[in-house]
Amino acid sequence: MDSLAQLFEETLKDVYYAENAILKALPKMVKKTKNPELRQAFEEHTEQTKGQVRRLDEIFKIIGKKASGKECLAIKGLIGETEEIMSDSETPEVLHAGLIGCAQAVEHYEIARYGTLKAWAEQLEMQDAAQLLDETLQEEKQTDEKLTSLAISTVNPDADMGEDSEESEDDESEGVNAASMDEEAEDEGATTSRKKSSRSR
Ligand SMILES: [Fe+2]
User: Fold this and answer.
1) How far apart are CA 38 and CA 20, in angstroms?
2) Do 195 and 177 form a contact (C-beta atoms < 8 A)?
3) Residue 91 contacts by C-beta under 8 Å, 6 or more apart in sequence?
4) Is a pLDDT exceeding 70 seen at residue 115?
5) pLDDT tens across 55-90, in order?
6) Rounded to the nearest whole angstrom, what is the distance from the C-alpha of residue 165 to the centroid of ligand 1?
7) From ligand 1's centre to the CA of 157, what distance in Å?
8) pTM value > 0.85
9) Helix (H, G, I), strand (E, B), or coil: what is residue 128?
10) How close is the Cα of 18 to the center of ligand 1, in Å?
11) So what's the architecture of 4-158+174-182 in CATH?
12) What is the CA(21)–ligand 1 centre distance, in A?
């Protein structure tokens, strides 16, 4: 690899693989989820992801290459962790909180990738590609925010009703909402850090 154009193409293959892997994982998550709002969010994101794959197809056309994926170890790892949550969670409430955490890890991976690809497309003066990448980027950010709201409004408080809600579990509240990442995200969309503790004692 010796050019930004090549790097762009390789990274496009990475997200193409990632989106298709997500498309396979989401129906399993829908099946496992008992929370209707969360299930609906996963269903909607499945449809959205199909559109994102179509945008990638268009971008491959723009650069005159055949659409293809290249194994992405990062997404494989994140999906592997999601499968672990699905098999290890002993209550639906814990499962739902865990699934949101995993889904947000995936969203943040995609936000990073699409942000980079958009910047490279602009650098390479491919405005149409940059526009398509931005549309997907905004969708991923909205999905991330929706998951944060769901976690805070229902899923985390439900999961907190477990029998051993002792002091030692407080550490867990740090990770699940992925809100800490928002402070680092410089892009205009991901500004909410609506993190609040459901344990007010
Ligand atoms: Fe996506």
Assistant:
1) 21
2) yes
3) 159, 162
4) yes
5) 999 999 999 999 999 999 999 999 999 999 999 999
6) 34
7) 27
8) no
9) helix
10) 8
11) Up-down Bundle (1.20)
12) 10
How many C-beta neighbours within 10 Å does residue 6 have?
10
Under DSSP, the state recorded for 130 is H
What is the chain's Cα-based Rg? 18
Whole-number Å distance, alpha carbon 200 to ligand 1 midpoint, is 35
Q: Quick one: tokens of 111?
A: 């936000």
Q: CA nearest 75: which of 97, 55, 44, 103?
A: 103
Going by C-alpha positions, the residue among 161, 143, 142 that lies closest to residue 97 is 161
Are the C-beta atoms of residues 104 and 178 closer than 8 Å to each other?
A: yes
Q: Where are the domains of the chain?
A: 4-158+174-182
Q: What spatial distance separates the first Cα and last Cα of the chain, rounded to whole Å?
A: 55
Alpha-carbon separation of residue 3 from 60, 66, 102 (angstroms): 17, 19, 34
Using CA atoms, how far apart are residues 27 and 7, in angstroms rounded to an integer?
Answer: 31
Give residue-wise pLDDT tens across range 18-43: 999 999 999 999 999 999 999 999 99
Dist. CA 201 → ligand 1 center (Å) = 38
167 alpha carbon – ligand 1 mean position (Å): 36
Supply 87's token pair: 């098999």
Measured in Å, residue 41 CA sits from the centre of ligand 1 at: 13
Neighbours of 68 (CB within 10 A): 11
Q: 124 is written with which tokens?
A: 């390479």
